[in-house]
Task: structure prediction
Amino acid sequence: MSKVKIILNPTAGMNSAVKKIPDIKELLKKYGVDYELEITQRIGHATEIAGQTDGNEYSIIVAAGGDGTCNEVLNGLIAAQNSGRKIPAMGALPIGRGNDFHYGMGLPHGLEENISIIARGDKKFMDAGKITGGLYPNGRYFGNGIGIGFSTIVGFEAAKLTYIHGFITYVIGAVKTLFLYYRAPTLRMELDDVVLNQKSIETSVMIGRRFGGAFFMAPSAVHDDGLFDLCIADNPPRLEMLKLLGKYMKGTQNTSPYVSTRRARKVSLTALDGTLAVHADGETICEKGQTITMECLPRQIQIICE
Result:
């Protein structure tokens, strides 16, 4: 195996990631990994590093952080690949809050288990999505999923809870959102050759399976089948939505009469009334958008897997 580049976000996990560096180095040494570690300095830095990493020199590039770090590394790799350059396979170390991208890759939770997987270097392909609209008129890539509506506001609220760590921040954010920001816009949904007009408090467009470390938006999603898995909640009353949150946490929301699931490769959403609050892998795409489009790009990158 040639060299491994590790891109570590020290502020991931509510600034706890930097404390894990000694353990990470010790485990890399234990498993005989020849590596180079780079610490990110600012938002967007992981994208820059990944985009400049030579796939002929490095066989693997590891996003050490949370979902935001993984998203940045993914964007850097795809941009480099689009320019015709060879890129490394992508690995991940789960030292963020939700670690949903990592979970969607089918990887375990612990540091040592993941570093042993990196040392083995087994690879497989995964899909990526491209979203266009909002802050990204030229598009941005994602590897886990898009949330439109409720889950995006939940993320905004969870980010304010700086005194709490882990998935409980998303649970508290969800309850707060339920009572303070509960309004479903009417959407025009174009899903390949199907068109729907309906209210939707939450539409999830998934490659992975989970948001917020706790909410299984697409529990049966497969990350290399070339299709998005959509979970659409229409406009349930608050009490029913509270029950539905419990179902999302168990991945049983498809038993609710307020939820429908679909699959598509291309998705376009337009707000006919109200606006779109959208995130991609936890990163804000827009707070009050009107139209977004998404396309699933089959088997776009290689990932390090069990």
User: Anything to note?
Assistant: The domain at 131-300 is CATH 2.60.200.40 (Tumour Suppressor Smad4). Residues 98 and 213 are 4 Å apart (CA to CA). The radius of gyration is 19 Å.
